[in-house]
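Hi all, posting the design record for the shared folder.

TITLE: backbone redesign
STEP: 1 of 1
STRUCTURE INPUT:
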């Protein structure tokens, strides 16, 4: 029984990278989100360029995605880019010069502001860049799309 359990856990952790979330960003302005993978399906809403989304399922030129609000919809694959953007989910996100709570504040970003992911930072932080060029580190708990 122990061998079986060890084998199960070994396979589980070996497969862990397959569980990794895939985040993309909307590349085309005014991309239409549908309730099914077809242009003949019901259009649900238009999503703004740069909005981060989580890829849930890919199917022949279409991707089912989840947005920061948890809504699911289908979008044409050609409307997505691998450039990683994050969206501020906190009332205000503090972007600091270093990945430390006491580091000098570079700028604050209001809720729903888009920030480009430069690179994942130390645990709980991400290095980001604002569209005006300012960059720094934000707490992962203040943004969505990591």
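Okay, here is what came back for every position:
SEQUENCE:
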């Amino acid at each position: 029984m122990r061998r079986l359990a060890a084998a199960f856990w070994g396979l589980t952790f070996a497969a862990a990278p397959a569980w990794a979330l895939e985040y993309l960003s909307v590349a085309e302005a005014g991309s239409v989100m549908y309730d099914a993978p077809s242009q003949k399906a019901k259009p649900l809403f238009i999503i703004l360029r740069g909005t981060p989304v989580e890829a849930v399922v890919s199917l022949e030129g279409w991707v089912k995605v989840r947005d920061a609000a948890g809504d699911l919809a289908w979008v044409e694959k050609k409307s997505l880019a691998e450039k990683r953007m994050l969206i501020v989910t906190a009332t205000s996100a503090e972007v600091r010069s270093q990945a430390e709570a006491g580091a000098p504040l570079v700028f604050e970003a209001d809720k729903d502001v888009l920030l480009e992911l430069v690179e994942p930072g130390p645990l709980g932080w991400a290095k980001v860049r604002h569209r005006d060029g300012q960059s720094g580190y934000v707490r992962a708990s203040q943004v969505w799309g990591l």
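COMMENT: The chain has one helix and 14 strands.
Let me know if anyone wants the other runs.
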